[in-house]
Design brief:
Elements lengths: L10 E3 L2 E3 L1 H17 L12 H28 L1 H12 E6 L6 E2 L7 E4 L2 E6 L7 H15 L3 H9 L5 E5 L4 H9 L7 E5 L2 E4 L6 H4 L1 E2 L5 E2 H5 L1 H4 L4 E7 L5 E8 L6 E4 L3 H18 L3 E7 L6 E7 L4 H5 L4 H9 L8 H4 L10 H10 L9 E3 L2 E4 L10 E4 L5 E3 L1 H7 L2 H9 L9 H10 L27 H8 L9 H13 L2 E3 L4 E5 L5 E4 L4 E4 L4 H16 L16 E8 L5 E10 L6 E11 L10 H11 L7
Parallel strand pairs: 4-14
Antiparallel strand pairs: 1-2, 3-12, 5-9, 6-7, 6-8, 10-11, 12-13, 14-22, 15-16, 15-27, 17-20, 18-19, 21-24, 22-23, 25-26, 26-27
Helix pairs in contact: 2-3, 10-21, 14-17, 14-20, 15-20, 16-18
Length: about 625
C-alpha cells in the first residue's frame, strides 16, 4: 500500500515544527512508562538523610581542623614562627674582641693574641633543598681539602646555628672562599685569634694553654673569667635572597682583662736551663723547682720537667706530637710543683722536726744528745728476735740541734722524734700535728689548677717506734708537694708567717691600667717563739758555713744563705729523690728556692750533687747579674 511519507507531514507547536516521528517516539515512551509504573514521576532520586549527615560531619571536622591549625600557627607557635621569620630577615653576629694577655712582674709580655681565621657553617642559611645544600658543602670540601661526607655528617647531626668546620684557614683558602661567596650561602669566615706563648715550653706549667676548642690549662684555666672578652652584637638585615641590606652594631665588644705575675722571667729561664742540664747530667727522670718571695708568697719562678710546648695546643697539635706526649713516661703535662709526684721529703723534714721538739720542750737550743752510728730497739712483734737497728749515714758523736740540722744527723732525729732508752721523743702524734701546723697535708691555695694535698701518714695502721724513726728523717708512707715545702720554709725564713702562694700579682685592663692588686694573704702564723725559729735558722745557716755542713758548697754565693738538703728513698735500690731548700739573704730573705730531682741513681752521700749545683748557679746569677725584686 502506498501513501504519503510521514516526513511530509509537519505539525507546528509554539512556532516550531514537530516531526511526526518525534510524536510517535513520545507516544511510545509514555506507553513504556505506564508499563513500568513510573508514569508521571520524576527521574531524580533525593539524597538520603544518612549521607547528608555524613557530609555534615566531615565538613564540621574540616572546619575544626582549620580553626585548630590556625590557632596553633597564630597563638601557640606564633612567636616561634615570627622569630623564624625575623631570623630569615635579620642575622645576629657576635663581634669578637681580644682575650686578655699575661705579663711578668717587669711587664714583659708572655702571651700574645695572633690573628687567625676559621671557617664556619651557618646552618640556618644553608639552602633548604638537599641537592643545593650538598653542592655548597661539596664545593667547600673541595676548597678546604676536606672530606665531603664528614662535613655533611657533621653539619647534619648538629643542632648548632653556627659551627666551625675548619680552623686556621690559609690565606689562599680565604681568597677562594671570598671569590665564591655568592655561590656558597651559609658559609662565613670568622676572625678567631689564637694564643701565642713566648718561649712555648719555658712557662708552660705556669701559663698553661688556651685552645680554640675551649680546653684550657694553667693560668689560662684558673683565670679564664678574667681573661675572657665580652663579645659585642651586630644585627644584619637581609633581603629575600639572604643578601645584606644594612648592619647595626647593637653592643660593642669588651676586651678581656690582663694578668701581671710575680714571675721573674729571667729567673725562670735560668732555673729551667740549669735544672734541665742537671737532670740530664745525673740521669734523673724528672724535676721540679719553685721560688717564692717569703715576704709576700709571690711565685717568682716555677719549673716542672719534663715540660711541653704550649703553642702545640693553642695552634693545633698534630696526632704525632700528641701520641709522643702521651707515650712519654715522664708525663710532660703533669705539674710536679703543685700536684706532687709521691715525693717523701727525706732530711728536708728535719728543720720542722727540730721546731716541734723545741716548742714541745723535748730539747733546748743547747741540748746535746749522743748520736751513735746507729740506734737499735727491740722488735715489738718478735721480742726474741734480733733488735732492729736504724743507722746514720756516718758517725757524728754528741750533737746539738744546730749541728744536727747542719750535718743532717739521722740518729739525733731518731731520738728526738721517737725517743730512745730513757730519752722521750716527740712521738708520732705530735710530729703529725706539727707537720700540719706547717700546712703539710693541706692545699696551699696557690692560684693554679689541680693542686695536690700531699699525704700524711695514717698513725692507726699498726704504727711502731721504727715507723716514727723513719718519719723523723722524712721517710715512710707520706709525700709532700714541692710548693708545700717551699711555703713551710718561707715561714721559717720570715719569722713564722705561712703565706698563700700567689702567681698573679695584679689585674690590669687593655691599657695596662690597674684594676685590682692581689695582695699577700697569710694562711696562718706558726705558734712558735722567735727564739726557737732563730735556732732552726742558725742550724740551716751552719749547713752552708760549716765544712761538714750538707750545703757547704753554697758558702761562696754573693750573699749569705741558709739551706737544708734531703735525700729520700724511692723503694728502688740505689735510686733516690734529691731535695734542697735554700733562702737568702740570711738576714733579710728575698727568695726561698726549693728544688727536687727525681729518681737519681747513686749513694745517699753523692746524690746532693743533683741539686746543689743548680742552687749555686741560679742564686749566684740572681744576686749578681740577675733581676732582683
Amino acid at each position: 500500500m502506498s501513501g504519503p511519507r510521514l516526513s511530509s507531514f509537519k505539525v507546528k507547536k509554539f512556532g516550531k515544527e514537530i516531526d511526526p516521528s518525534e510524536i510517535l517516539l513520545d507516544s511510545l515512551a509514555h506507553s513504556k512508562e505506564k508499563e513500568m509504573g513510573v508514569s508521571g514521576k520524576k527521574l531524580e532520586t533525593p539524597i538520603s538523610r544518612r549521607i547528608l549527615q555524613g557530609f555534615s560531619v566531615v565538613f564540621l571536622l574540616m572546619l575544626v581542623f582549620i580553626f585548630a591549625k590556625t590557632f596553633q600557627l597564630q597563638v601557640i607557635s606564633g612567636e616561634e614562627y615570627s622569630q623564624l621569620a625575623r631570623e630569615n630577615q635579620y642575622a645576629v653576629r657576635m663581634i669578637e674582641a681580644e682575650r686578655g694577655v699575661i705579663y711578668d712582674r717587669n711587664m714583659n709580655q708572655l702571651v700574645f693574641n695572633r690573628p687567625s681565621f676559621d671557617l664556619a657553617v651557618l646552618t640556618n642559611d644553608l639552602p633548604e633543598e638537599e641537592s643545593a645544600r650538598d653542592a655548597v658543602l661539596r664545593k667547600t670540601a673541595e676548597v678546604m681539602e676536606l672530606d665531603f661526607n664528614e662535613i655533611k655528617e657533621k653539619v647534619g647531626s648538629s643542632n648548632l646555628a653556627e659551627m666551625v668546620i675548619a680552623r686556621n684557614i690559609s690565606h689562599q683558602s680565604i681568597i677562594i672562599l671570598e671569590a665564591e661567596k655568592e655561590n656558597l650561602p651559609g658559609l662565613e669566615i670568622i676572625n678567631s685569634a689564637e694564643r701565642e706563648y713566648l718561649s712555648g715550653s719555658l712557662f708552660s706549667h705556669l701559663l698553661g694553654y688556651k685552645r680554640k676548642t675551649g680546653q684550657k690549662a694553667g693560668l689560662e684555666s684558673y683565670y679564664d673569667e678574667v681573661l675572657t672578652f665580652k663579645p659585642g652584637e651586630l644585627y644584619i638585615e637581609r633581603d629575600v635572597y639572604g643578601r645584606p641590606i644594612s648592619k647595626e652594631v647593637v653592643s660593642m665588644p669588651q676586651s678581656g682583662d690582663s694578668l701581671v705575675l710575680w714571675l721573674d722571667s729571667g729567673l725562670q729561664e735560668k732555673l729551667a736551663s740549669s735544672l734541665s742540664a742537671s737532670v740530664e747530667r745525673v740521669g734523673g727522670t724528672g724535676a721540679a723547682a719553685v721560688a717564692l718571695d717569703p715576704k709576700t708568697g709571690g711565685v717568682l719562678a716555677l719549673v716542672s720537667l719534663p715540660d711541653y710546648d704550649s703553642n702545640l695546643f693553642s695552634q693545633g697539635i698534630s696526632q704525632e706530637d700528641w701520641e709522643a706526649m702521651q707515650s712519654n713516661p715522664g708525663d710532660p703535662l703533669f705539674n710536679r710543683v703543685v700536684s706532687g709526684f709521691g715525693y717523701p721529703t727525706g732530711s728536708t723534714i728535719k728543720p720542722l722536726i727540730a721546731t716541734a721538739a723545741l716548742e714541745e720542750g723535748i730539747i733546748q737550743a743547747d741540748t746535746k744528745i749522743y748520736s751513735p752510728l746507729q740506734v737499735c730497739i727491740e722488735n715489738p712483734w718478735f721480742p726474741e728476735a734480733e733488735p732492729q737497728c736504724y743507722a746514720d749515714w756516718k758517725y757524728h758523736g754528741t750533737s746539738d740541734v744546730k749541728r744536727a740540722i747542719a750535718e743532717s744527723v739521722n740518729t739525733f732525729f731518731y731520738q728526738v722524734g721517737g725517743g730512745y732508752e730513757d730519752f722521750k721523743g716527740l712521738g708520732p702524734t705530735k710530729i703529725k700535728k706539727w707537720l700540719q701546723e706547717f700546712n703539710w697535708g693541706t692545699e696551699t691555695g696557690v692560684d693554679l689548677p689541680k693542686e695536690g694535698k700531699g699525704i700524711l701518714p695514717d698513725l692507726e695502721d699498726e704504727w711502731t717506734t721504727g715507723d716514727t724513726y723513719h718519719l723523723s728523717i722524712g721517710q715512710g708512707p707520706f709525700s709532700i708537694t714541692p710548693i708545700q715545702v717551699a711555703s713551710a720554709y718561707a715561714a721559717i725564713a720570715n719569722g713564722g708567717k705561712i703565706f698563700q702562694p700567689k702567681v698573679v700579682k695584679e689585674i690590669v685592663d687593655s691599657n695596662k691600667e690597674s684594676l685590682e692588686e692581689i695582695g699577700p694573704s697569710i694562711l696562718k702564723v706558726l705558734p712558735v717563739s722567735q727564739d726557737n725559729l732563730e735556732t732552726v735558722r742558725q742550724g740551716m745557716r751552719q749547713a752552708v758555713t760549716s765544712p761538714e755542713g750538707s750545703s757547704y758548697s753554697l758558702n761562696w754565693l754573693p750573699v749569705e744563705a741558709a739551706a737544708k738538703t734531703g735525700t729520700s728513698q724511692t723503694g728502688k735500690e740505689d735510686v733516690y729523690h734529691n731535695w734542697i731548700t735554700i733562702f737568702a739573704p740570711y738576714d733579710d730573705p728575698e727568695i726561698v728556692l726549693t728544688i727536687v730531682v727525681e729518681n737519681v741513681q747513686g749513694t745517699p752521700q753523692g746524690i746532693p750533687a743533683a741539686v746543689l749545683p743548680v742552687a749555686n748557679e741560679v742564686l749566684g746569677w740572681y744576686f749578681s747579674t740577675g733581676e732582683t725584686p
